[in-house]
Amino acid sequence: MPLEDQKRFVTLLSITDLNGGNRRKNVLDNIRKKEYINFIEQDLAPRELNGQLKWENDISFTKKHLLMEGYIEDYRHGHAHGTWKITERGKTYLRELCSNVIKLTSDDYHILDNNAFIRAREILLEDEQEDEQRERELLEDFRALRNEKREVIVQRRIRYQGIVNDLKEKYKNRCQIEGCGFTFEKRNGGFYSEGHHLVPLSEAGTQEADNIVILCPNHHKMLHYARVEVGDLKYGKREVKINGDPHFIRSDQTLIGDD
Predict the structure, then answer these.
(1) How far apart are CA 219 and CA 216, in angstroms?
(2) C-alpha span between 78 and 48 (Å, rounded)
(3) 3-122 is classed in which CATH architecture?
(4) CA 163, CA 174: separation in Å to the nearest integer?
């Protein structure tokens, strides 16, 4: 694994640790705090031009390439250095880098410390667990579609996962049931939520985004096993009665806020 790829891995890893986006200083501080890089004396030497340590300057240079290639975004809000945010493309790229890192031997660690290897394993394990969870979600919603050809089911699954990923990002993994908004932070720094077809495919529900909602685990199970009546979408909300009690599902990002 080339040295530059290891720098890319460490940069994206640190951004992911910080909820997928943070200021440059915090990203660099996190790399050092988590001991992802095995520093040598030369790395800690300040550069004459800008006073930055050599390793910090190297990461900033790597960040420019990640930005140009669409793996991160740099939001500036009146600061000299804005927020480095990983993109969906960057998340996929990070998983590829994780897969390469865990194949390395200690002799191949140009700059990486063991903690970086451990985090790569954790991220891949988290992905496997989420894939299994989505398979369970999908099987629950696809109960009546078992007779379809396997290729069709696979296509449906891929499309479903793509829509769910987009909606999770839009709603920040918060439950769309009004008054709930629950999520929790996972070990890998991301946040947890589950996708659900409001009208099951077995009942002529569609795979369009307006029929898929992001829920906390509790409300997800309620919509599967309680008595549920789904109303029409009106003014950015949809009424859903659960065992006769009215609830509202928010479907407009502006209703969620930035908390």
Answers:
(1) 6
(2) 27
(3) Orthogonal Bundle (1.10)
(4) 16
